[in-house]
Task: structure prediction
Amino acid sequence: MEKEGIASPFTSEDGYHPLIYRLYFGRLISIETLVVLDKIYNYVTMDSDDIFLEDVSMLIKKYRPFVQITNKMRHISENFYK
Result:
């Protein structure tokens, strides 16, 4: 099984929401996970035409100051796809 690049969970394909957002909508990951990943990869944009993505993006941006990431979190995230 081939691993996909780290950018793939953050991009939409074939008209679907990005994987990271689908996991959040399905309650498989928390808002804190989205915020930590955004602090590391800075993937959230506010220029979406999709009302769901726009609301979640706003929530992530407002939640960012309250979530602290550690070096261990950063290390795990950056080495996950190596």
Q: What stands out?
A: The chain has one domain: 8-79. Residues 8-79 form one domain. The mean pLDDT is 84.
